[in-house]
């Protein structure tokens, strides 16, 4: 089969012929239909310091995907041949304290699909049946392919109550855009999205946010004044990993405000903890998705009319993977999809 492989400890990927995976105990074999390119995949292609420390080539990369089940191991239940599925890319041990307590998203022994084991940028991928999410209602394959990052957005957005609240989202990348769509859909009063990319801010405007703010031109305080907000934001979703973004968010939260932080900083940076203390702010780190409450919420949000189609801006054949990766790395697009049937 064809697969995108990190063959050596150096920049680049190659579309190579590799053996088809063999279904193990408790697993399913999935014919991949669509995949989404994640920031993690860009780090892997560039083979930066994180990738050099984390990866052990050769490795098939990729973790955002959807596909059709074509084989199941004996004893697997609730998954059938022909099902359209997405995959939870965090494989957990099932035996640690958090796993045993039902907090699988906090497993200390998590193995990442496409990072620590062969991934989904391939014509076929195997996955434990417990990591397979079956789409019981119709969903577009392009949307099904991005359930992994959509889950990050939903996990972050639903961390704190949002109905009637004023929400600040820093970072209009694909996950920030999806979080903005969720916040608007579930009844936030005002949703403000900040970034420095005019193209991504234009996408945010299409999602119905109250204000898409270019912080290279205007401050968050300017945006608050425009919307008539006097006391600051109730909920903050930090999606950029940018030090200035978090500092600006902290400075513009109401007393008692709550911040969910998904953006992953490249290095340590200073935070004004005096304001965190005196304003009694809550900052909670978010990683991945709750298994599988977040997945249930995602499916229900789509059933109730949440439209993610504006977030998907570019589509490529898997054969044109270099162009797809370059587009995703431009910082000007929404989600980039690769079609493995074309």
Automatic annotation (TrEMBL):
Reaction(s) catalysed by this chain, per the record, are: L-threonine + NAD(+) = (2S)-2-amino-3-oxobutanoate + NADH + H(+)
**Any one Gene Ontology molecular-function term assigned to this protein's record:** zinc ion binding
Domain Alcohol dehydrogenase-like N-terminal span(s) in chain numbering: 24-133
Report the GO terms under cellular component.
cytoplasm
Secretion signal, residue range per the UniProt entry: none
The protein in question is named L-threonine 3-dehydrogenase
Sorted alphabetically, the Gene Ontology BP terms of this entry are: L-threonine catabolic process to glycine
Active site as annotated: 40 (charge relay system), 43 (charge relay system)
Q: Its function?
A: Catalyzes the NAD(+)-dependent oxidation of L-threonine to 2-amino-3-ketobutyrate.
State the gene name recorded for this protein: tdh
Q: Which PROSITE patterns match?
A: ADH_ZINC (PS00059)
List its EC numbers.
1.1.1.103
Q: Which Gene3D superfamilies match?
A: Medium-chain alcohol dehydrogenases, catalytic domain, NAD(P)-binding Rossmann-like Domain
Q: In which pathway does it act?
A: Amino-acid degradation; L-threonine degradation via oxydo-reductase pathway; glycine from L-threonine: step 1/2
Q: Which residues bind Zn(2+) 1?
A: 38, 63-64
Q: What is its main location?
A: cytoplasm
Entry keywords, A to Z: Cytoplasm, Metal-binding, NAD, Oxidoreductase, Zinc
